[in-house]
Amino acid sequence: MGILTNRRVLLGIGGSVAAYKGAEVVRLLKAAGARVRVVLTAGGARFITPLTLQALSGRPVHEDLLDPAAEAAMGHIELARWAELVLIAPASANLMGRLAAGLADDLLTTACLATAAPVMVAPAMNRHMWAAAATRANRHTLEQRGVILLGPDEGDQACGDSGPGRMVEPAELVATVARHFGGGPLAGLRVMVTAGPTREALDPVRYLSNRSSGRMGFAVAAAARRAGAEVVLVAGPVALATPPGVERVDTVSAADMLETVMSNLAGCDIFVAAAAVADYRPAQRRPDKIKKDAAIMELALERTPDILATVAMVEEGPFIVGFAAETRDLERHARDKLERKGPDLVAANLVGDKQGFDSDYNALTVYWRGGSRDLGRATKGELADGLITLIAERMIEQG
């Protein structure tokens, strides 16, 4: 993706069971284009080997403050000067305490004292250790000094407890690093978003359509632009203002929208199919207005082109996000769409008379093969920001 191209990240790995996740952090940073050097504490080396980290980073792993070969050139100072950002993941309770006390008793704490770069810390420890008064005091001290704390998350822990103390997942850490460097997690990427309904003409006056307002798709386009992307918004017939900085192309029918999407697909990194495209259209468009003569009129319909499935069939195509608006069995229908049409993610929501339509609020659950995330109920703008963050995380995880 290149969202961190040539950024210099010094990764510190402390003595926690979560140290094994450090390997994934290195991999994802490298996949995003960063230059990574690893400092492994003595405790961290009990959980993960330097050889693993060296293979992933492509550089020797630094461990010993008093390594004669390195310290002949003041190695800890060189590392501190080299870093644009120091990321410590995981940070044990002991490591946080030593950082808060300003100790310089190993290479990592010494480099942190000597660097002018921002320091991010991802804690990982038992929930009782996280809640302890000493840890709370250390956290407060670090935050007062400008250290950025990432997490911890809540959930099951290696000791069998459940609660706050889990290290933030590697993809989320790397997405946060990308945001820190400016331009947002989608900086340099091209995103296409479809939004709104389509209209399928029955005669010169009437058409088939649906209740989509286009607000969710427009919110996604705005969120992608805020995240640094170049955005093309392919809109159905809606009365909404174009988000700032977004290129807009208006369409009417499903066929129009497909043609516009395919003509703009080259160079597209992410495709978000948020439009509510009509599934069927009249098999025959009447040239004149249909008169109200018969008591019953039968209407023959034919399938419209499937935009999502068509884009998914493109070789080496973009990262694809589909939407699924359902009235029941949300997960079953969303996962079916994943398998049948082949997107990378499906953002699903329940709709009906009192939710989804004509509202600034929505509720989304995002599904992918092997996982899901509930974004909860929030404004469509807030959900769009959450979806864009998740897209960036999933793209980083896929490398």
Q: From the 3D coordinates, which CATH architecture of the largest domain would you assign?
A: 3-Layer(aba) Sandwich
Strands, total number: 19
Mean pLDDT: 90
Radius of gyration: 26 Å
The first-level CATH class name of the largest domain: Alpha Beta
Write the layout of secondary structure elements.
Blueprint (H helix, E strand, L loop, with lengths): L7 E6 L7 H11 L3 E6 L9 H8 L10 H4 L3 H8 L2 E7 L1 H9 L5 H8 L4 E5 L3 H5 L1 H12 L3 E2 L3 E4 L5 E5 L3 H11 L9 E6 L4 E2 L5 E2 L6 H12 L3 E6 L11 E4 L3 H10 L6 E4 L6 E3 L18 E3 L3 H6 L6 E8 L3 H12 L3 E6 L10 E8 L2 E9 H19 L1
Parallel strand pairs: 1-2, 1-3, 3-4, 4-5, 8-11, 8-13, 11-12, 13-16, 16-17
Antiparallel strand pairs: 6-7, 9-10, 14-15, 17-18, 18-19
Helix pairs in contact: 1-2, 1-9, 4-6, 5-8, 9-14, 10-14
